[in-house]
């Protein structure tokens, strides 16, 4: 399949806005600029009044938790987990996770996301939803060393890796997903590291999300979570670390040395009152800091534009400095830095020849996109997820004039509504 | 005109979600619940899968500053004002303000806002745009005592009040708009108070927006801005105070005593790094704290759902307390508390018989509205402005299935694009 994006305004690799045609051949961006006359497209998309950007990279979520959207809010973390989320999660079936993931994918595609990183359970069903939908994903089976399923999780992670790594035309990457230092004791994490070495799989883990976690870790191990992970060899395995809210400067130095990649989740951190991550310092230290929505139960949607806006605004008021995290940086975090955070920096996150054709087209013809003094500013501070008009992943159109092409939206909605109500009974 | 909203889910006065029919007669909500059989509607709107809420009240904006949307971002306040905004504003004509206001109104209606409070200049053109569009507004001619136009502004304010107070079928309220303590010296504010007494007009003013403003005020007058305003008699006139970011507990006590009403602008305060207002304390003190977008140049859109979400999330992380400003409080700030802040608490902001029919219908049939465990949570944390389906103001439909009925959107867009580009040359 050859697709021509005709006359697009686009966000270039250097962060500038250009105007060009984009030629897509198979799964790849073949050319940007003037297209050879003898190159014949099978499909031409008129991009006038549209802005083409690399599809958003959601670097941290628990997709099927969409089923708990709006079930429990405005609670303390432990009250929320112990009295609401965990009892409801105990009712989840593999089919629930399939449908919950499909809801998440539908929402992500409709809001311009082309790749997401997931950590949950019943992962073969998650992978199935990813394969069918056409989206790109980095999947990890969540593992808790303190749970009765600790050993099972290791076995399942290995078989999940063997079955799904590089599957779905290469759209699926599998990582190992030890949940967090406070749910995975050192002995368990050593097993995870050994499995990671055996398989060649990277690691997706929650680190330093709350002040309480860091305090407990210091009391128990005499080290910060980052330092503990370093000593256990976790950080040598290629790590995607979610949250990283409470860090010392030593932690950041270690992360820089070990090239730890970060998923910053400003919406979740705000809603759960976890704290404000030292993003400016992490960026200054050269870390690849992407953006994530976290699960819909603590967000409560999967809209990456909201995370872009929060990243651009929260740190300004927190630092009393309106120059911190300008628009272009926030957009970069949601695209190319996010791709790097997932280990996909050479694959997606940039509009350039040779990269995967993972592209989101925003319809700019709406009042809030005028006047057009600066497109990057408009995207960052004024755009709406509902402006997403077309989404292409791996060279295939997954959203066409706001209509999903691979998901039966009505059927999915009926399923998730029914299942969501059942889960909380 | 009689309109029947058939089978609506609605946000009731008590903050609960109910299910009922809503009968509108003329500009008023006549009845909610079972409708008498002999009451015949001229128009019936099927509200299945829709959520009816009181239209949002945007308590503080500078509407025509939409023309500067995306022109200048990520700058320090004085650099932004002196080198970008003020030079561009110097180029504004009355016609520019008319079109910029029309853009703002179009955007506000499309995102569910039914009333806004404005402070700007060329106010007869603003009032004209309000009258033509059908929206409700509280308008103030901005006055700066330090400007060459200081005396003119007083004269214009008086004539503007006499011409437009209670105009447009009562949809327009006029206030006086002394800009701020740092632009209006005490002697000038005394003139404003005298004019306010003469006309019976209330006052809309920026107060305690930045730490620098408070510091300078203390150095110059030995008092905080709130205390200074109190001594000058400003607070006896019925005051809508925008921002109120930097307050002492004495300030809040004074505000409570004088029933000062507040426009909280979380988006603008974050983007300009102004600080985080003590909203929980103000609410605890019984103040009517509404939400506002501020001008589009510092936001950069006029989407009240974003302000609701920021209000619900920013204070949680700032206070390290996920229980602060729950969803229902944030929605209340955008509706009934906002109406009270504008002095319209007996007119709009609640769905109840006898109140003005200012109603926004959200289409809930989209992935991010499922599953529907809690509608108020979905509205607060997951909804999009693009879900706004129908907007009714004063009993008239201004948005019908997402189409503006009183504004020629294409013509307006062409005008604002052309004018926006001219202004910055």
Description of the molecule:
Two copies of one chain form a homodimer. Chain A has helices at 77-89, 94-110, 123-133, 150-164, 167-170, 186-199, 211-221, 225-231, 249-257, 266-271, 279-284, 304-319, 327-334, 336-341, 375-381, 409-423; strands spanning 2-11, 17-25, 28-33, 43-46, 50-54, 56-61, 113-120, 136-143, 172-178, 203-207, 239-243, 261-264, 289-291, 359-363, 388-393, 396-400, 403-404. In chain A, a hairpin with a 2-residue loop joins strand 2 (17-25) and strand 3. Chain A is α/β, with parallel strands linked by helices and 425 residues long. The mean pLDDT of chain A is 97. The first copy, chain A, is built from 16 helices and 17 strands. The first copy, chain A, folds into two domains: 2-54 and 348-404, Urease, subunit C, domain 1 (Roll); 56-341, Metal-dependent hydrolases (TIM Barrel, Alpha-Beta Barrel), CATH 3.20.20.140. In chain A, strands 1, 2, 3, 4, 5, 14, 15, 16 and 17 form a nine-stranded mixed β-sheet that branches. In chain A, strands 6-7-8-9 form a four-stranded parallel β-sheet. The radius of gyration of chain A is 21 Å and the shape is globular. The interface between A and B is large, with 74 and 74 residues.
Give the secondary structure arrangement, pairings included.
The structure is a homodimer of 425-residue chains.
Chain A: E1 2-11, E2 17-25, E3 28-33, E4 43-46, E5 50-54, E6 56-61, H1 77-89, H2 94-110, E7 113-120, H3 123-133, E8 136-143, H4 150-164, H5 167-170, E9 172-178, H6 186-199, E10 203-207, H7 211-221, H8 225-231, E11 239-243, H9 249-257, E12 261-264, H10 266-271, H11 279-284, E13 289-291, H12 304-319, H13 327-334, H14 336-341, E14 359-363, H15 375-381, E15 388-393, E16 396-400, E17 403-404, H16 409-423
Parallel strand pairs in A: 1-4, 1-5, 6-7, 7-8, 8-9, 10-11, 11-12, 12-13
Antiparallel strand pairs in A: 1-2, 2-3, 5-14, 14-15, 15-16, 16-17
Helix pairs in contact in A: 2-3, 2-16, 4-6, 12-13, 13-15
């Amino acid at each position: 399949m050859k697709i021509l994006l005709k006359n697009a305004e686009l966000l270039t690799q250097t962060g500038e806005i250009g105007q060009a045609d984009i030629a897509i051949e198979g799964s790849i961006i073949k050319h940007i600029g003037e297209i050879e006359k003898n190159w014949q497209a099978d499909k031409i998309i008129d991009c006038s009044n549209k802005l083409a950007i690399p599809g958003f990279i959601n670097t941290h979520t628990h997709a099927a938790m969409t089923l708990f959207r709006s079930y429990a809010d405005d609670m303390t973390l432990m009250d929320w987990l112990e009295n609401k989320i965990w009892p409801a999660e105990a009712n989840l079936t593999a089919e629930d996770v399939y449908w919950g993931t499909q809801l998440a994918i539908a929402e992500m595609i409709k809001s311009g996301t082309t790749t997401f990183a997931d950590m949950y359970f019943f992962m073969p069903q998650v992978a199935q939803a990813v394969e069918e939908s056409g989206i790109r994903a980095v999947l990890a089976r969540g593992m808790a060393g303190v749970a009765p399923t600790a050993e099972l999780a290791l076995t399942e992670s290995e078989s999940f890796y063997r079955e799904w790594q590089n599957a779905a035309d290469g759209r699926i990457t599998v990582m190992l997903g030890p949940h967090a230092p406070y749910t995975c004791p050192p002995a368990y994490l050593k097993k995870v590291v050994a499995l990671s070495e055996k398989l060649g799989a990277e690691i997706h883990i929650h680190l330093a999300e709350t002040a309480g976690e860091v305090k407990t870790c210091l009391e128990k191990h005499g080290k910060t979570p980052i330092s503990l992970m370093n000593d256990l060899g976790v950080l040598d395995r290629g790590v995607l670390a979610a949250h990283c809210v409470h860090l010392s400067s030593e932690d950041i130095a270690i992360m820089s040395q070990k090239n730890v990649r970060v998923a910053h989740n400003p919406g979740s951190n705000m809603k759960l009152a976890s704290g404000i991550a030292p993003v400016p310092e992490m960026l200054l230290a050269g870390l690849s800091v992407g953006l994530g929505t976290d699960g819909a139960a603590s967000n409560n949607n999967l809209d990456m534009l909201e995370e872009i806006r929060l990243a651009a605004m929260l740190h300004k008021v927190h630092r009393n400095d309106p120059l911190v995290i300008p628009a272009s940086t926030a957009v970069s975090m949601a695209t190319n830095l996010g791709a790097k955070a997932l280990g996909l920096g050479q694959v997606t996150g940039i509009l350039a020849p040779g990269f995967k054709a993972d592209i989101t087209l925003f319809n700019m013809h709406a009042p809030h996109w005028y006047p057009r003094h600066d497109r990057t500013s408009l995207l960052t501070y004024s755009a709406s997820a509902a402006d997403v008009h077309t989404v292409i992943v791996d060279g295939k159109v997954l959203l066409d004039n706001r209509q999903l092409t691979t998901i039966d939206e009505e059927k999915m909605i009926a399923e998730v509504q029914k299942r969501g109500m059942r889960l909380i009974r």
